[in-house]
Amino acid sequence: MFMNSDNAGPAHPKVMAAVTRENEGWQGSYGADAAMARVTATVRELFEAPEAAVYLVATGTAANVLALATLTQPFQTIFCAPAAHIHEDECNAPEFYTGGAKLTLVGSGDKLTPEALEASIAGEEMRGVHGPQRGPVALTQTTELGRVYTVAEVEALCGVAKSYGLPVYLDGARFANALAALNCTPADMTWRAGVDALSLGGTKNGCLGVEAVIFFDPARAWEFELRRKRGAHLFSKHRYLSAQMEAYLEDGLWLDCARTANSRCARLADGLRGLDGVSFLHDPQANALFARLPREMHRRLFAAGAEYHLWGVPDSEVEREGGPLLSRMVCDWSLPESAVDRFVGIARG
Amino acid sequence: MFMNSDNAGPAHPKVMAAVTRENEGWQGSYGADAAMARVTATVRELFEAPEAAVYLVATGTAANVLALATLTQPFQTIFCAPAAHIHEDECNAPEFYTGGAKLTLVGSGDKLTPEALEASIAGEEMRGVHGPQRGPVALTQTTELGRVYTVAEVEALCGVAKSYGLPVYLDGARFANALAALNCTPADMTWRAGVDALSLGGTKNGCLGVEAVIFFDPARAWEFELRRKRGAHLFSKHRYLSAQMEAYLEDGLWLDCARTANSRCARLADGLRGLDGVSFLHDPQANALFARLPREMHRRLFAAGAEYHLWGVPDSEVEREGGPLLSRMVCDWSLPESAVDRFVGIARG
Amino acid sequence: MFMNSDNAGPAHPKVMAAVTRENEGWQGSYGADAAMARVTATVRELFEAPEAAVYLVATGTAANVLALATLTQPFQTIFCAPAAHIHEDECNAPEFYTGGAKLTLVGSGDKLTPEALEASIAGEEMRGVHGPQRGPVALTQTTELGRVYTVAEVEALCGVAKSYGLPVYLDGARFANALAALNCTPADMTWRAGVDALSLGGTKNGCLGVEAVIFFDPARAWEFELRRKRGAHLFSKHRYLSAQMEAYLEDGLWLDCARTANSRCARLADGLRGLDGVSFLHDPQANALFARLPREMHRRLFAAGAEYHLWGVPDSEVEREGGPLLSRMVCDWSLPESAVDRFVGIARG
Amino acid sequence: MFMNSDNAGPAHPKVMAAVTRENEGWQGSYGADAAMARVTATVRELFEAPEAAVYLVATGTAANVLALATLTQPFQTIFCAPAAHIHEDECNAPEFYTGGAKLTLVGSGDKLTPEALEASIAGEEMRGVHGPQRGPVALTQTTELGRVYTVAEVEALCGVAKSYGLPVYLDGARFANALAALNCTPADMTWRAGVDALSLGGTKNGCLGVEAVIFFDPARAWEFELRRKRGAHLFSKHRYLSAQMEAYLEDGLWLDCARTANSRCARLADGLRGLDGVSFLHDPQANALFARLPREMHRRLFAAGAEYHLWGVPDSEVEREGGPLLSRMVCDWSLPESAVDRFVGIARG
């Protein structure tokens, strides 16, 4: 009943097998391995983007901040949601990598709206040289609260960005979960909608630790490579990153894993929906459920060994009297149906 | 009728005379001039702080960001008001100088409250290593909207900061205006209330361009000196900064200038108060008035050559139909009473 | 006959097996995995340093720059050899991570001498606030030219650093090779000799990609953790780093691999020594041989598929007429004796 | 007999008078003052560069590092002489402002040669993504050792830079002294020779504190403005910078001051040349003399109140036995002939 996060489960056996298989003989280092060439070809094909520049790094934060640093000048500001990982969970890595750019928080919560984005962008640069200049728009798909931007929503947001000449970056740590939810093509959700660069997460969805960074316009590819090296994120034995990503994208494994994760989450929601005192922040759209549960239900679950996070309050809160407490349950590909069912059983009491 | 800002008037004749007087013979460079030794002694006496480290720089932004960089680690966040100069008007200089620290916006508007500060500080570090760590609290006195923190308010805010072990920095670009308004001692408004470091502005109040940075605890003084040099803010012919500050602090000139500026602003408010369609954001407490005026009154004033800023809307807005528009009038020491009276006369129509 | 580098061979089967074994169930993320606790205990025991703080990252550059950034202020300079990896091969990562510190190149070549270090340190800070301040001394063991500092040499260099109150960092990307060569204890070569922090490399010696950073004084451990996160080097599925390092240090595997690599290199040197036109930059002390070979010998070797680097000249140089060309051959644990023998055979013609 | 530096004398009376004159009424702030428009026009005319972007800052270091940061990517290296101010005397400001770029020291001493520059540039980027990329070439005119690049020398160095597509920056803290020495036009010494950007120093040659930064190609002008603001170097009461520069450039005052300074230095050299035990590092070409004097002569001069620097050794050295000690005497416009003559008289004993 591990639903703390999707970053604590094992790698998919096919991914692990690929890593093991890769462990033969010598390979070019620093990205010159044969597997990387195949990964680039595969990503280009999947995204219908024959010119795309494709790079691998080992952490989602590295993907985010290296891509953003390539798109941002230090005197600019990045527009993002207040709940964005780049704002809340990267210990100032974006500020560090951009050389001191600012993050402008747009609206509230996890999801940008075109109206809030428009207002936020319009509001900057009223101060000329005194305020930060407008920089990239950063979306997260799926969002930190487990929601999914529809293709039309991505288009609308990119439209606002483009009307100001700003690039759009998409943090796709859970890209596959969103794609599985939307049932569209990678191209539809990205460059066709106006996205300029994205991360394509593997770590949370069946890999050991690998994320692809994709630039649809390769003009700044070399700069990215230099920033990756300067950030100490260029692996000498890069082959092991490549092998993971190759297996992950092969035969749709990435989407299979995402669909499994999403369906576990739906099953969990179905099991909890309608129980006394239970309500959802919103209906789950991918692999994360944000649910308010009665404290007594939390206690029962924790006592039975369920693992998940209370959201925005310390764990100790569960022992006190009071109303339902918001919690986050995240399902990854490895979570068995039986664990979901057991969780629901305990919740039902 | 120049009320655009307090950064566009002339220097006080006594300050200018001091600069001219200083222009004789050779002097030690880089702060080793005789006048600087006198400035340090004077500041220590005025602030009843015999150990204080005192430095001069030429811009308010330099004072802010060098002091903050000395107090902040790059993985921390600085707590400040959304309207703070360091957030809105320094083109990411704090992020640059701190090596990428973040600014956490506390509450709304220009003025911190202890409750909002407490909530904001408490909210950070729930994420351990993932989020930024708590850093300094930055106050602005007088605020960007011309308000003054009482000594009790400064004490309460510092109390919150201290309860978390955080240092407090005070942006005193208009320190003299606040002091004149509060009629307290410099020590009461700063170290006795819990302030660790501040800037003492001269530029907006009768100088050509000089600000003192004061650290009550000299432990990090040498680091400040290195950061000043590294920031390219150490003047070789430092004597001209010293001469300004010396004249500014001599015989209470700084407070005289501030009192004059504040009284001009009060006169302006008295003249506008109660006019049809006129309302104030708040009663002016120092040298800045934020007043909503009917558009037709704005047009009349602009036509007559009055200079001031519309606040938050482009100038062109004044030509359109609609309700009153908020404007900011700032008075400096050099604004004649007659200019205020003429302004009021035109406003009255 | 792959001797290009020790970063292109496979991981040792025991290391790979450990990674595969680790791929079961859920584990605490971000370093809270069970294996990491065991790694910390093992490192402390091996280094006889029960208080040491131990961290894992995935690249040698990350280890170097995160450790150095923790030890260096941005207005300081790091003393290192001109051939140091941090100077030549990290694309300004040290300057980036330290917030703009400088590297002062001491003497020439790959190895510091106490005399050159003393002169270099003494030479800095003659300019007071104008020049950079003295920062850490960075050693590389084994050096970029494959040489080993004896324990006495490390002690002497640390002695110079300590006499100025400067910390010493040791880049141990090839720490095991040095230890195998010196046949001393880890403690002797590090903290007992005066080293404050080091990286303990795994990547080049049998791992997929993992390096330990060790601080003997844990006072700045938390700062390191924040810098690691801020640098995007904290792995969510950290368990796979831990598993590598655990297997690497178990039952002396790290030293076995290093001894194998070193002995291959010795065999290679033995095979080439005395051949017509062949000379060595210095006798190999660990796993790298720098040898001048006649151009015709290079051509023969390259034609037969030998892989190694010409040093300081482009590969095309080998086709031109002229004297012997310097080359670097690096042996890793996976290089078979037969490959060495074949290489020698071709060289002998 | 003050020859410590050219940064410790008074401002020229005409410059001071201009500052005083400027102290009337209100002026646009942040560079929007009327005087700045005139300065821009004058600089463009003097440099025969009608498109040039012209900015003012208050310190030479600010001019250097803001211009270089505009021309340099953080993953590049700046080519400069080991004695360059940007390397030795700016406490890592270039590394700070560029976001961590490196400085590659070319050859030895104060002056670049085309051969050394070519070798140094060619040597970088042999390491691809691993080493820093080639960035700007930075010259200093006059050099730190008081020498002057001829126009042909500047052309040759720019030629090397251009052959690699690299921009050239000229640190002209003592530009006027060089111009006076060469008796050429500003255009000849700069853009016609291949210089892309320069600082035009005022501080050391009759001003209180002002340097112009000139970009011949205005393409990156706006970026410079943002970097200046972000660096806290944009003055609100900018008029006082403008007034200095305006007076400085008016009627050839800048060249008059430089000629005076240079001739004082020549007179000093003439007076010392040939004395027993006296030798020059090189014949003075502008306003600085580097002379080896017998220790007893130093003692006599110091005892009589002469002020100048021993070069590369602590002052205490003068009390010990030994050979002549190198010293630096710098003459500014304000040094009277009589002071020179008195100095020479004492030296002669």
Automatic annotation (TrEMBL), chains A, B, C, D:
<keyword id="KW-0663">Pyridoxal phosphate</keyword>
<dbReference type="InterPro" id="IPR015424">
    <property type="entry name" value="PyrdxlP-dep_Trfase"/>
</dbReference>
<dbReference type="InterPro" id="IPR015422">
    <property type="entry name" value="PyrdxlP-dep_Trfase_small"/>
</dbReference>
<feature type="domain" description="Aromatic amino acid beta-eliminating lyase/threonine aldolase">
    <location>
        <begin position="4"/>
        <end position="279"/>
    </location>
</feature>
<comment type="subunit">
    <text>Homotetramer.</text>
</comment>
<comment type="similarity">
    <text>Belongs to the threonine aldolase family.</text>
</comment>
<dbReference type="GO" id="GO:0006520">
    <property type="term" value="P:amino acid metabolic process"/>
</dbReference>
<dbReference type="Pfam" id="PF01212">
    <property type="entry name" value="Beta_elim_lyase"/>
</dbReference>
<dbReference type="InterPro" id="IPR001597">
    <property type="entry name" value="ArAA_b-elim_lyase/Thr_aldolase"/>
</dbReference>
<protein>
    <submittedName>
        <fullName>Low specificity L-threonine aldolase</fullName>
    </submittedName>
</protein>
<dbReference type="GO" id="GO:0016829">
    <property type="term" value="F:lyase activity"/>
</dbReference>
<dbReference type="InterPro" id="IPR015421">
    <property type="entry name" value="PyrdxlP-dep_Trfase_major"/>
</dbReference>
